[in-house]
Amino acid sequence: MKMDDTIFLFLCTLLVWVMTPGLSLFYGGLVQSKNVLNTVMQSMAAMIIVTFTWVTLGFSSSFGTGNAFIGNFDLIGLQHVGFAVNDQLSPHIPFALFMLFQMMFCTIAVSILSGSIAERMKFFPFIIFIFLWVILIYSPVAHWVWGGGWIQQLGALDYAGGTVVHITSGLSGLILAIMIGNGKKIEKIQPHNLLITLIGGILVWIGWYGFNTGSAYTLNDVALTSFVNTIIAASGGAFSWLIIEYLMTKKISLLGLLSGVLAGLVAITPAAGYVNYFNAFVIAFAGGIVCYFVINVIKVKYKYNDTLDAFGIHGAGGIVGAILTGVFQSQHVNHDISNGFIYNGDIHSVLIQVIAVLVVLCYTVVLTWIIGKILQSIMPIATTEEEDKTGLDQLVHGEKAYFYGELNKLNKRY
């Protein structure tokens, strides 16, 4: 065990923890003022539900020895998880710290998918959904990619969660949004407070440095490369997004800048420790362009109700990044991998990435639809007309974020 690596990952784990409350603020500023607390609560409650689920079953399903498809029950209830290292998974750091770092990934994934159904889904069915989602979708895919499962055996790469976190959460959010959207009016929601969104976006941006850099699990050249690539990618995604936005609208918006930053960060996530600096910029630049068109062209054309564009940024960006990893992966950057398409002209590495993406895509879509249908057969999951009109904050939580009416009365009185 190396104490410097332990301290390093301890700090990275805290940074990734910050991402979930940060994303709750990012989403909260984008919804109507009458639903801001409900939107924030979806992410904050996810931290509670994921912790319980991960400790009891999720971690064991993801990283237990098991077979090529699912982990076994050796680690259930965090048995054998303590200060000692695990030779296969955490040779440099305490196994319990590895478990916590991975739990933060699962938590932010749940928070991401909540953006697709913000203001549209009842709170308690959402809580039940994320409990089942962690067990039936996230944990198996995490095992396939990182826990010794069949995707890892195939040789597909996912440095920090492009497939495991972003594709699964983005696609699940999209399918759930489509199921809820049937019969509900689809309308473009105007953000009620972009300054809250800015604060949340900054917290997510900062947390992403721990998200990607910590995925090296040791403070070495790969960790530093992924740190630099993450900084470059944030700017690369914003740069391409703002160029396209200006060409299309003749405006440059704050929300566009933040969306581009997130698109670039998502796109580089699966490749951060595998590509050089210039190619990191190329991947992020492509991610910004693709995510912009998914949100502003494809979503508009097909009229699906991805409320806060969780799929448009995370699903689409994750797919772009995962596939381009096979194009640009470099043995010079990371000695544990083979060279990608641009270095050897062999399409094999790209095909492996495509196979992994397609299987995870199909599995996520089917399982999300099944879970959604089961919930719909038991209880209504879409918000009612009264909830849409009055607001979820007041009806579900008995609280308000703002008191405009009361302030106006006070102003008139004095």
UniProtKB/TrEMBL annotation:
<feature type="transmembrane region" description="Helical">
    <location>
        <begin position="350"/>
        <end position="371"/>
    </location>
</feature>
<feature type="transmembrane region" description="Helical">
    <location>
        <begin position="39"/>
        <end position="59"/>
    </location>
</feature>
<feature type="transmembrane region" description="Helical">
    <location>
        <begin position="223"/>
        <end position="247"/>
    </location>
</feature>
<feature type="transmembrane region" description="Helical">
    <location>
        <begin position="126"/>
        <end position="147"/>
    </location>
</feature>
<feature type="transmembrane region" description="Helical">
    <location>
        <begin position="254"/>
        <end position="272"/>
    </location>
</feature>
<feature type="transmembrane region" description="Helical">
    <location>
        <begin position="159"/>
        <end position="181"/>
    </location>
</feature>
<keyword id="KW-0812">Transmembrane</keyword>
<protein>
    <recommendedName>
        <fullName>Ammonium transporter</fullName>
    </recommendedName>
</protein>
<dbReference type="InterPro" id="IPR024041">
    <property type="entry name" value="NH4_transpt_AmtB-like_dom"/>
</dbReference>
<dbReference type="Pfam" id="PF00909">
    <property type="entry name" value="Ammonium_transp"/>
</dbReference>
<comment type="similarity">
    <text>Belongs to the ammonia transporter channel (TC 1.A.11.2) family.</text>
</comment>
<keyword id="KW-0813">Transport</keyword>
<dbReference type="InterPro" id="IPR029020">
    <property type="entry name" value="Ammonium/urea_transptr"/>
</dbReference>
<keyword id="KW-1133">Transmembrane helix</keyword>
<feature type="transmembrane region" description="Helical">
    <location>
        <begin position="193"/>
        <end position="211"/>
    </location>
</feature>
<keyword id="KW-0924">Ammonia transport</keyword>
<feature type="transmembrane region" description="Helical">
    <location>
        <begin position="310"/>
        <end position="330"/>
    </location>
</feature>
<dbReference type="InterPro" id="IPR001905">
    <property type="entry name" value="Ammonium_transpt"/>
</dbReference>
<feature type="transmembrane region" description="Helical">
    <location>
        <begin position="93"/>
        <end position="114"/>
    </location>
</feature>
<feature type="transmembrane region" description="Helical">
    <location>
        <begin position="278"/>
        <end position="298"/>
    </location>
</feature>
<feature type="domain" description="Ammonium transporter AmtB-like">
    <location>
        <begin position="8"/>
        <end position="402"/>
    </location>
</feature>
<keyword id="KW-0472">Membrane</keyword>
<feature type="transmembrane region" description="Helical">
    <location>
        <begin position="6"/>
        <end position="27"/>
    </location>
</feature>
